[in-house]
């Protein structure tokens, strides 16, 4: 994981101090881990460790290693990378936050204090999908009021992750046998979404139809572009439905079972 992504993880959790590039020194390791424990993990409430919040030169070896072992970090020792330890504990903190805040996020989406829809909120179904992707790629969850530019930055980071190695993915995606196909699909969608967003921001999104001698003003051109995008979305949904039907048919035809008593082939 790059320092940029780690900084985003910690920033999402509320850790404000900058993270240095490269390997983390032991003092920075102590500051980050002790903050995460006190703010999110709270393992010491059940299994106290004496002098945990007192930094010494031997803190990593005598205090931290037993602590992260109790959290499930296997084969940790004094030579284990400080950065890998921080990534592990930060991911635990985000998992806890995800479980605690999921209902609050869902309730907050498109709501203001008076209960009316909030114009700059991410739609609930889109937010849920994006956060499932965030969880699978070990990224911070998006907030309901994340700006469009923030969503694009998240997709750009996702693109960087899926273009790397499979270890960047976690959870149900990691165990899927079609890993490369999944990564390719995510990569394609991210690239297409970012490209279209940048074109729209610059006013360069093509209308996609022959206007002949017609001259549209900016509002009319925008409306035509929106219609084109909706039409493309409808076609893609239709194609997905067709693919699902073909997949169901193949389940019956690719592996037929014969029951002679019934005098027919198939399920």
From TrEMBL:
It comes from the Eukaryota. InterPro entries: RTRAF (IPR019265). This is RLL motif containing protein 1. PANTHER family: CLE.
